[in-house]
Amino acid sequence: MVNVVTDKEFEEQVLKAEKPVLIDFWAEWCSPCRMVAPIVEEIAREYQDKIDVYKLDVDANIDTAFRYQVQSIPTLILFKNGKPAERIIGFRPKDRLVAQLEPHLS
Which of 6, 11, 42, 58 has the fewest CB atoms within 10 Å distance of its CB? Predict the structure, then answer.
């Protein structure tokens, strides 16, 4: 399941998490964001034992988006041990997303 995270909760939910955390930086008006959303949902279900997955609305949470230099959406950032481990910008098919994420999930 994909949860929602905000600027206020980001440190506790993401940076202090024990498991790797995938953040989907998105906005309501973004068409590619809507295209990647079902893929992110599938990844969240299939990898629920290995990662936590959150969505962060960049329009409502500009501090976090600015801190991680999110200049284009969708941007997916995988955080591991409180630090960005992988950054994926733009739409990717599921197999390519998984291929980029899997090396960080062992």
Answer: 11
Active-site annotation holder among 30, 37, 85, 105: 30
Instruction: Tell me: cis bond preceding 74? Omega within 30 of 0 counts.
Output: yes
Reported as a single tens digit per residue, the pLDDT across 18-73 is 999 999 999 999 999 999 999 999 999 999 999 999 999 999 999 999 999 999 99
For this structure, is 33 an active site residue?
yes
Structural domain tally of the chain? 1
Neighbours of 77 (CB within 10 A): 20
Provide the CATH number for the domain around residue 12: 3.40.30.10
Q: Which of 21, 33, 53, 58 is catalytic?
A: 33
Residue ranges making up the domain that contains 83: 2-104
Q: pTM to 2 decimals?
A: 0.95
